[in-house]
Automatic annotation (TrEMBL):
Residues 1-23 form the signal peptide. TPR repeats lie at residues 732-765. InterPro entries: BatD, TPR-like_helical_dom_sf, TPR_rpt. Keywords: Membrane, Signal, TPR repeat, Transmembrane, Transmembrane helix. It comes from the Bacteria. This is Tetratricopeptide repeat protein. The chain crosses the membrane at residues 498-517, 811-831, 843-861.
Amino acid sequence: MTMNRFTLPAIIALTTLVCFADAATVNAGNVDIGLSSREAYVGMPVTMRLTVADATNYETPAIPEIPNCDVRMVGSPSQSSQVTIINGRRSETRSVTFQYAITPRTPGTFNIPPLSIDVDGKQVKTQALRFVASKSVTGDLMFVEIAGGKEKVFVGQPLDLSLKIWLKPYYDSERDLTLSESDMWNMISEQTSWGDFADRLEELRENHQRPGGEEVLRKDAEGSLRSYYLYEIKATVYPRQSGKIDAKDVQIIVNYPTELGSSRSPLDGFFGDSPFGGRSPFSRMMNDDFFQSSFGNRLAVTASRPIVGEVNVDATQVLPVPIAGRPADYRGAVGTYRIATRATPTTVNAGDPITLDIGIAGSGPMELVQAPPLSELPALTQDFKVTDRSLAGFVQDDSKVFSTTIRPKEAGITQIPAIPFSFFDPETETFQTVTSEPITITVNQSETLALDAIVGNSEKPQHADHESSAIWGSTGPDFSNNNSPIILRSQRAHLPFAWWWTLIVVPPCAWLAIVVVRNHQRIRRWIPTFQSARKRCVSSIERAASLADIAEAITHYIGDMTRTPCTTPTASLGQLRIRGMYDLANRLDSFYQDMEKRPMLESTSSDRSSCESKACLLVEQLDDSFKAARKPHILRSGKPMVQPASPVLRRSWAFLIAVVFAASANVVFASETDPSEIELSISQQEIILKEAGENYTQASESATIDAADAKQKFESAAQKYQLLVDAGVQNSQLFLNLGNAYMQTGELGKAIVYYERGQQLAPYNQQLFANLEFAKHQRAAPPHMHAAGWFDGVVQQLQGANNTFVQTLGIANVIALMVISSLAFWGLLIANTIGLRFPIWRSSLVPLLLLLVSMGSYQLFTYNTVNSHMAVAVVDQMRLYVGDGEEFAQVATLDKAQGHFVNVLAKRGGWIKIHTAQNQVGWVPTTNIIPIRS
């Protein structure tokens, strides 16, 4: 009994689950297929629709080839969804429909085999389909002809073709009515394929026009003259293969009327049922508003049948371009052409890029014209580095412009040679070659490529500590790179050799401690002099041994506060009354009189404490009165006024606001200008670093042989180093490598940026310091430099002299001199302090001078003139605008701005407001500058 009690519900639950599972299986991934018609005509497509419903994943169906049929997909798949709510239950169905146009080319029966589609991981097969195609009897209702007008043309030669359509007017004998040429044109089916004439029809449609029909006489199939409407469409084509003119893509389909009847609505157009009639797009294209017609409101085509016109093409022969006599630089142009070139700039250094624009104009199809093979022209490749990639140009009217970059290989090149362009002239049936004019240029010796001649130690071992070796290395700039994988480790800004600060700070601290110990009694007497008058008075009262001492302490206090000599209590009372403190003077006088009654302090502790308390209370009241008297008396209005902040508080708030503003501006600027970090694995970083190092080394070796190739390799190395930086690697040596690469490519501004960033991480790196100073000296001085302030001017002059001193001596030697002179000077002072007698100033003068000089040199070396708002110009010419856009007026144009510092004031979108050294303020694009702080 118990078993049955639990078995029945289990069976019901299991049955329910199975039913739901079956239902889910049935409803998921349904595939439906069907044809728009089982009967078709040759040349007229039928539509096959394939619908996939309730599927999460599915593949695009692959339609097999159907013999004697053309199959193409119509548009993109359409998606639909349907939501149904029945008895409160909501169900949703989603489906996607693919449409294919199947056009039979011959009469017969056609089979579409079952299609296998992957739906939600399962193969679903559709049912097989079949349709029948018969040939539509056109008879003498329509004739189609394409006329070329020439006996022969060459491949690629323009050929004017004319598509002629003769369409017999439909005549309704019952109503004695003949349709007009516009009515018959509107019967052309939208399934018509126009081939090369489609562009012309599209042009007419955009102008709200259509081909005009003309009533002419033509012989029908039986040779009798009949009336036809002739529609003629002209187009220019460019044959792409030899033989006869191919017209397979032209197929004219007309829904020829067979019956007229009453219109269903007085608002219906005459051909409302026709795809090309009434309000169809093609009817609107032709400006045929048949609502104006008197019978158009009463009649419409009620029956039609499709007819397909067989296209007859004239005997124009397309000949291939001959091979004999074909120039080596010929690239298939047919017609007549001319060529012109332009180069910018015309004065460059060896290896620098020159933009070469090539313009070709002619009578042929400009979209098919190819650029001359520049990499195969010996006259050009002998002196210039030329890309071997095909150039993509843009067409404008009857011309096409190509743009490329060439690089002179060495200094002294005086011109870009003439560029030839070969074409085949179909009129003379010969090949012709035209050339551009040579372009005069000036190529100077590249300064950046000569940097290897001044490097310090290019044979440094890769495993050496790059920072220490740079500090103790050469005094000149060194443009060799260290490509050890260790530089892929990110660093933080730190100060190496911090241990030596101990040797500088400890000796003066030791001397100060000895001085304090040996003079502690004198110092103890000095300490009260630094207290306030009130505190000194209270301390004296607490130490008083008699009433006279208390009175004397109060008298001295009043004298200090009034800044008058008060030798007696009576004099102090007079000073209080002079200042209007009558009440306090009376209370103090009573206190004095009370004390005069007791010549000596009572022995009891309570009396002593009471007297001291009264005296201290009077002093507190006096102090409050003196403070109130010092405040200015200002007549206040009825409105409350906020008390002004104290100078210290104001300075504190100003400093705090400045810090917050600087921090926020720096964060915003960095977050908006820094590129998004690229994710690179360690192995990828090592590969990129290796490739960058190889490119840099190869470029250094070939700099004197092939300047153009060296420049390209330097640029490639810079791009790869930059990729590592963009990936988030922050390393001083990597910044040095990148700065060197930019220096070699002539991008002085970027080189300075990354040298500065490297110094933030390694401030004592001598190679960074020397290279940065060298780069700064390469900058061109911009005109009308704004004079610096007095302090900044002095600092700049001192830094200039100090940089030469440090570069010659080395920062490590400066630090060593500072440590030794500090130990010597303070050691002599300590010896003299503990009692050794010798001429202290004569002995310590030299160590003191050395200490001051070395410490000043070190401070100038580490003095950071770069703040968080500074950036470097990375363009030669910088235009400043009043606002953040080129539509605003220009403030100024700065020439030779590359590498110079500017202050960033604000940022908005892709524009930055800056303040230049010329004391000019304006907006520039963000691409013109790079911030120093990374």
